[in-house]
Amino acid sequence: MSVAQQLYDATWGRLFAAMYDRSLKATEEAGLGEMRRELLAGAAGRVVELGAGTGVNLDLYPDSVEELVLVEPDPHMAKRLRARLAVSPRQATVLEAPAERLPYPDASFEVAVATLVLCTIPDPAAALAELRRLLVPGGRLLLIEHVRADDPAVARWQDRLENAWRLCWGGCHCNRDTAAALAAAGFETSGLERGRMPKAPPIVRPLIRGIAPSS
Q: How many CB atoms lie within 10 A of CB 204?
């Protein structure tokens, strides 16, 4: 990577982290925040969250969570995450590491959490395989993810705009078939609900949410 590209990535990464919470504010207030709350009510025991970002989920975890590891590889996001953690009553460990390679032994967690992150991870198949390794037998993945549309017309627009969207939104791929990736990785997807992201552009409106047990 050239020096110019490194400088661009660092500058844009800092700006993206700074604007992230504000850019999602209307969507959170229109229903996404309540989806998060309902989802995380089911977290318990030892929990690992992928792509914790600025820590939007942090104060939504119930007291039944005994240990919480927040994985965030982006240093600008991680800085904001640590600042939020510093003023939160929640105890957690922040880990700056890629989701595809996490430094924990097999069966370290009962629950994994992924909210709006599997669209961005460079190798989602590797990340999901890593989650299966880290989860105890029968462990659960709690997730909310925007996905490839069932509507062929919307899916075509997702494909057309994917490159531009990815450049503007921190590497987010708007057209990933995350449900298929989950099934291929060995997670049970029959209980996942399909829905719509409130107050979001059409190409990132289709979503799946719920609990995907590891089979």
A: 22
Residue 136 · residue 110 · CB < 8 Å: yes
CATH no. for 3-213: 3.40.50.150
What's 28's DSSP letter? Answer: I
Banded pLDDT at 14 (limits 50, 70, 90): confident
Overall pTM > 0.90: yes
142, 211 Cβ separation under 8 angstroms: yes
CA distance 144 to 146: 7
Q: Which 3 state secondary structure label does DSSP give 76? A: helix
The structure tokens 């089979």 sit at 215
Domain boundaries, the chain: 3-213
> Which residue in this structure is represented by tokens 């959490």?
113
What is the Cα–Cα distance from 145 to 148, expressed in whole angstroms?
10
